[in-house]
Design goal:
Helix content: 25-40%
Number of helices: 19
Distance between the termini: 48 Å
Strand content: 15-25%
Amino acid sequence: MSSHEHRADAGWIGRPIKRVEDLPLVTGQGTFTGDLPAKYHARFVRSPVAAGRIVSIKAPDGVKIFTGKDLSSVKPIHLVLQNYDYVPVAQPVLAVDFVRFVGEPVAVVLGKTQEEAEDFADQVEVSIEPLPAVVTLADATAEGSLLVHEHVPNNLVVNGNISKGELPGEGVTRVKAKVRSNRHAALPMETRHAHASYDRVSGRVTLTCTTQSPHLFRTSIADWVGMPESELRVVAPDVGGGFGQKATMPPEFVVITWLGRTLKTSVAWVEDRRENLIAGFHARDAELEVEGYFDNDGKLLAIDADILVNVGAYSSFPTSFAVEPLMSMTELPGVYDFQIYRARSRGIVTNTCPMAPYRGVARPMIVLVMERLMDRAAKALHLEPTELRRRNLISSLPYTSATGLRFDEATYQETLAQALETIDLPAFREKQEEAWAKGRYLGIGFSTFSERTGFGTPTFAARKMQFVMGWEKAELSMDPSGFVEARIGASPHGQGLRTTLSQIIADEIGIEPSRIKVIHGDTDHTPYGWGTFASRSLVITGGACKLAAKKIHDKLGTIAAQMLDVSVSDITLRDGTAFARGSNRSIAIPELARAIYHQYPKFKDTLEPGISESASYDPYGTFSNACHVAIVEVDIETGAVDLQRFLVVEDAGRMINPMVVEGQIRGGVAQGIANALLEEIIYDSDGNILTATLADFLPPTSLDVPHIEIEHFETLTSASVTQAKGLGEGGAIGPPAAVLNAINDALKPLNAEINTIPASPRRIHEAIRNARK
């Protein structure tokens, strides 16, 4: 177990220093895309129907309006995946001829102010001949179903299969679990914004926007608009949350870039909350069913899984239709030790908003179904649910899963054991029995899981994606005063990377983090990189920073050895100074930097001038892990859930900054609780969205989220050069399973069961009512 005590002489890694990002943000001094002035403001006219043929689009005289026909030279957003029977579907940046979901942009109008643009958009008359909509998985997979796209038979765009080993026959206990995850939305505090500015001197366009991946957006938009990439600069200023939504290319960004370049002016778009909820990408609309095969000792022998995912109307870029179906299938075995595995995972198109990665990406769903299986199997085998988990958790590492994933050092058994000790399960069971006797329904739920983090090109190459993403590069330079600039291709938006990367670099070079400036989010001033998503940046960009900083450390050591006339092996860099071992001689690091710049002839025979180094890092990846525990009380008359306690016992390797770690965990858990109990995107049978405001789509308040208890393990992994693992998504992965298991545990005396999230009061009350019939 890790404590937060930190020796003063132990370096900067591990210290809970304050985030350098926060002061301007909490004092109103942040710089956001929506703050930029523009000559024109854009407003998108969107389809009011889920499926239909566009008959006409008309605007009053004097309204600047552009339709898909005006942008005929712009290529549609298109992605190819060479695997899993993938059927590509191109999305026009503005709909042409047909619309395929409510909210799809069909035109864009310009006004001198945002309000004027909104007024103009309201005056546009769009005539659409409605067509029958395919909305649900049941609609799309029914025999003889209507097709969302004519070239996609059976609405099937992804069809993945895994078969390893033969399923057991007689002498086993077979237990099924089936869960339904209803549609979610990421709901970043800042919606999607874009600002294109044309420079008449250089002929370049600067696109300032809310993106997690500036370089990839630059490459792709330039391709689709048909302009040299050198003529496009993409800038991500302060970004108010992303959660995967802002790693996905909005067609609106392509349109805004085209407008700025075509009109040779500045154009801004600020998405409102309603637009974000209807067209800002959704996630996790899926049905998952597993059957587990257990021996008489409760050992899990095999899993047979069927996964069905509603992927919406179009393939999102760059992750494609396949991200949720294939990640679900590949990572479903999770932290449990078995080698016989069969799975089928299908992606189904419908007339709904396209899907995109959302914090946790598929894993909240697969952890939910596996953890429900564990609880249901424990009941069938007459075991305590945690005992069944203990018997099946991976215990020997390294470990290769049934799907070929390599698990590095971790603490699956230990985190569960610590959670049990902290929660005092026997004492809770006594309290629970007493409560049941009094007509109060207390329950406890567990989820044990892993989080795949920091994965490089091997993962993306295996998916046979159009872009083999993964590696990152860092460029570090020290100026003559000893200050360091670190330029990175990652693009943080709330993760605290400027702080944590500075701590990594500071420890490696031997200076204070305050002397390091991390530069990101500008394609003109940073090395090409893939961005910040998938719990990757601390592992991969942090690794690249460490490797580049090591080169600077070595160069400073060489300079110091020459200036102090000692061997390089006798030089130690710490506290901003180079010390010669075995003597009282030392020299400040700024003096070393000034010497290599201003007294270069002294070093000419052995060193290049200046101090500038770069490094790239491309790891296989590493697995964080955690055990989450939820304690609830259910009001059986109303179905309301009181979440009384939530415990996280996690292991993300070396903690670079414990305060940042706990901030990430708490934010993720809050989102996971929202997914478990509150947030849901709902369509009616015609494809109209019913939750387009925050009065209907319910984010959690402070009253919905209890104090989150956190305990740490620090397993120093050999799979990461910093020995750290990612953890940006883990907080959001575990809560749906822990909370749903707790609700079902509370309802055991009633023999009621719920297997759908969010577990709303209506659904819980319905489950209780059904059990009483």
